[in-house]
Amino acid sequence: MRHDKCAVFQVTNNHGHARLICVSGIRFSDGATFESELRREYGEWLHVTFLGRFDQIECAPDLAQVFDLLLASPAPLHALQEPVLRQV
Description:
The chain is α+β, with helices and mostly antiparallel strands. The chain contains three helices and three strands.
């Protein structure tokens, strides 16, 4: 079964060079397993963190464009402005 979400890994080497690597269509459990395998195999010179699975990955060329991305999101703008209330 193919999964639609994209798994994102943050990879940082010993010199501090950081990048995000996105893998399309894997399950959460596969992402977590892959993170463990990478840490075991390359842990001496790479720090790997599985950040999670996302419906959409977006990149803005600058801070001025971030608001445009927020307005284009599937969530209504008022939902972005309302505080999140926790139920006890």
